[in-house]
Amino acid sequence: MKPAKAVLGGYGTTVFEVMSALAREHRAINLGQGFPDGNGPDDVRRRAAEALEDSPNQYPPMMGVPELRQAVAAHNRRFYGLDIDWQREVMVTSGATEALAACLLGLIEPGDEVVMIEPLYDSYLPIVRRGGGIPKLVRVEPPDWRLPRAALEAAFSPRTKLLLMNSPMNPSAKVFDRDELEFIADLVERYDAYAVCDEVYEHLVFDGRKHVPLMTLPGMRGRCARIGSAGKTFSLTGWKVGYVTAAPEVLQPIAKAHQFLTFTTPPNLQHAVAYGLAKDDSYFTGLATAMQASRDRLRNGLERIGFKTLDCAGTYFITADIRSVGFNGNDVDFCHHMTVEAGVTAVPVSAFYQAADVTQFVRFAFCKDDAVLDDAIARLARHFARG
Ligand SMILES: Cc1ncc(COP(=O)(O)O)c(C=O)c1O
């Protein structure tokens, strides 16, 4: 038979699947894949159940149910002061993953250059390539994940169609500050580019820091597509409800891609997310406070064992240096070793870089119950005490 399409077929199984399968095989505690323990807020789930019974279950509007689009617009105003027209500037997608695909396939013409900042979430590069984009990679690196401004500037050219960025950033847990965002905004404007902003961890920011959407900076309102995810904001990752906010001219081509990708998203889940986005501020601050406590629990445990951990300003993830516990192999070997020998799974940070040359750091997810984190720490402590 003729070979299947190579652009996507050439990719192996994602590292998350590989490590999760190994974790299952060895009954290890899986701190690799970033899904929370627990089942999300009871009232949001209840709303989904009610809507399943009481609301229509046929195709909802392609752009999303009005209630959710209104709620996304209101959320943008409440948290960021953005004035959004819900009818022309909000679209609901099947998770941020579909939002990303729709943005990239909708905006990129074959041959367009796309600036991306490594480490990269795994779906970015395959979709950019499938869309015919030419990736221009810049990297932030552990331990300080500093933005390499000269390299970023050099990556832009008159052929740059868009910048794809992620803040708060997985796996680095970096939250881009205003000064960095101003530098980025200047480049986006100077090169007449778009910016696709993956902000799925917008409510998971710690230590009093604030998430600043690039869209709120001068000149950026009409150039950015801002992506959120109910999966992250309500700890309901299986729901796959996402939303894109963008000026009408930016959203239109994105909506064209969406109509041929999934077209719609289950209506009861959309109603429940609309309900969730309208919850009191205390829900959103409570989410960050609880996640920060989990971060501290895992970080303190890892540090007690001897791991050096890196600053963690947001997301579900913390990075640890494997040299600090005397491991001399690479991060992939370490994750394998730790799963099999200690019964705890993490993911190698090298998997987020094309060159796979950042090899001494691993990512742990801390969006887990206290008992699970404690058990993981106890297992690691036993293992590393044995030496
Ligand atoms: C940076 C980033 N973007 C997008 C996604 C996907 O979000 P969703 O589950 O809403 O598709 C994730 C999920 O882990 C993520 O970490």
Characterization of this structure:
This protein is of the alpha/beta class. The chain contains 15 helices and 13 strands. The strands form three sheets. Strands 2-8-7-6-5-3-4 form a seven-stranded mixed sheet, sandwiched between helices. It has a four-stranded antiparallel sheet with strand order 9-10-13-12. The mean pLDDT is 96. Residues 34, 95-97, 121, 166, 170, 198, 200, 229, 231, 237, 240, 242 line the site of pyridoxal-5'-phosphate.
* Gyration radius over CA: 21 Å
- Figure out the total of helices: 15
Overall 3D shape? globular
Strand order of the largest sheet: 2-8-7-6-5-3-4
Strand-residue proportion: 5-15%
Following the backbone from N to C, one meets helices and strands in this order, namely HHEHHHEHEHEHEHEEHEHHHEEHEEEH
Q: Could you give the distance between the termini?
A: 52 Å
Class of secondary structure makeup: alpha/beta
Beta strands, count: 13
Overall mean pLDDT stands at 96
Helix content: 40-55%
| Low-pLDDT stretches | none
Bound molecules: pyridoxal-5'-phosphate
The largest sheet, given as strand count, sense and whether it forms a barrel, is: 7 strands, mixed
In short:
Helices cover 44% and strands 15% of the residues.
Reconstruct the topology from this structure:
Layout: H1 6-9, H2 15-25, E1 29-30, H3 42-54, H4 66-80, H5 86-89, E2 90-93, H6 95-107, E3 113-118, H7 124-130, E4 134-139, H8 149-155, E5 160-166, H9 178-190, E6 194-198, E7 224-229, H10 230-233, E8 242-246, H11 248-261, H12 267-277, H13 281-305, E9 308-309, E10 317-321, H14 331-342, E11 344-345, E12 347-348, E13 361-365, H15 370-386
Helix pairs in contact: 3-12, 4-12, 6-7, 6-11, 13-15
The structure holds pyridoxal-5'-phosphate.
Residues 34, 95-97, 121, 166, 170, 198, 200, 229, 231, 237, 240, 242 line the site of pyridoxal-5'-phosphate.
